[in-house]
Specification:
Keywords: Pyridoxal phosphate
Pfam family, one: DegT_DnrJ_EryC1
Order of helices and strands: HHEHEHEHEHEEEHHEEHEEHHHEH
GO biological process, one term: polysaccharide biosynthetic process
Number of domains: 2
Structural class: alpha/beta
CATH architecture of the largest domain: 3-Layer(aba) Sandwich
CATH superfamily of the largest domain: Type I PLP-dependent aspartate aminotransferase-like (Major domain)
Radius of gyration: 22 Å
Bound molecules: pyridoxal-5'-phosphate
GO molecular function, one term: pyridoxal phosphate binding
Shape: globular
InterPro entries: DegT/StrS_aminotransferase (IPR000653), PseC (IPR020026), PyrdxlP-dep_Trfase (IPR015424), PyrdxlP-dep_Trfase_major (IPR015421), PyrdxlP-dep_Trfase_small (IPR015422)
Helix content: 25-40%
Low-confidence stretches: none
Amino acid sequence: MPDFLPYGRQTIEADDVAAVAAALTDDYLTTGPRVEAYEAAFAQAAGAAHAVASNSGTAALHLPLLALGLGPGEAVVVPSITFVATANVVRMTGAEVVFADVDPMTGLMTPDTLRAALAETPPAGTRIVGAMPVHLNGQLCDMAGLGALAAERGLWLVEDACHAIGAAAAGACRHSRAAAFSTHPVKGITTGEGGVTTTADPALADHMRRLRSHGLVREPASFMRPDMAFEDGQTQPWYYELPEIGWNYRIPDVLCALGLSQLAKLPRLHARRAHLAGLYARLVAPLAPGIALVPRGERPDGWHLLVALIDFARFGTTRAQVMAALRREAIGTQVHYIPVHEQPYYRDRYGPRRLAGADAYYARCLSLPFFPQMTDDDVARVAAALKRSVGA
Ligand SMILES: *Cc1c(COP(=O)(O)O)cnc(C)c1O
């Protein structure tokens, strides 16, 4: 039996191990000098002015919403084809979610599906203040189109770029207030758990750094209680202040050591993914029209997931049968994602909704093994097994 191929897998090499081992015996395990170094390197790689590192992609999505002051009485548009965290962070602020439909071929929110969501009546007592495009699979959304619509309607955009590490300038935020990345092991690079938020706005970056550590302020110029902060014109040496509540979203220094080492190899990992995607495209093309890969466009790509769209009924089979057949050949697959508006929590809260594009994408999608250490032969093995699994 050949080695099992999961749908995604981290790349940890000897230099990553050495970097972590060196950090472990340093003075700092949590916030230390490597956090800033990692943020600077990440900003550079993502084409961003500022980067704020945190301890998960979910934290990296939550922080900009908190810093933008999102809360009860407001609503945010989120595409239904995404990981639940994109919607959950909106609810974590007390705001409500309005689910947008997606293009059935790409799974992406488009200017048209955003416009349709904005035409909906938002939950009672709320108004829509922003939207969160998701760069699903690594495909960048039409940010210029979404940005133009958002500007016209007075909305902000926060990008869920958790799939887009490595896409050229994915973090530049030319059309958004912020972009959030994840470094979970299946993503483009990993720190175990981790996230980074990028922004072009220095004040927003500062605010997110405060909210990342409980909301505490240590700069004397910002103190609101001079009676407690100062004595004889001197700042009390122990003093800090809590003007608003935040979280503990700090990323440990030791994980930033791993992040720095991973970032150095991002161009190589990304190039390998692009190569494997090209190989898949060639090998799966003959299986059309029953099987097609999600079409990857002209825009830069993070190459996170490699997704086949399969017309299971046409082959007289089901997705569960195809997944089981592939598993018998030591090939792992996954479904990204169950439409979030169908999750019991959201269906109970907002009632049943029909989003035809999301349903169509969900009905056909299957993520195939896709990670940098795969060999060209591995891709050929998956393509051949996929063909057998549908009886083609
Ligand atoms: C992974 C992911 C997240 C959350 O990231 P974590 O690091 O797991 O918290 C959010 N959105 C999308 C689209 C993701 O893939």
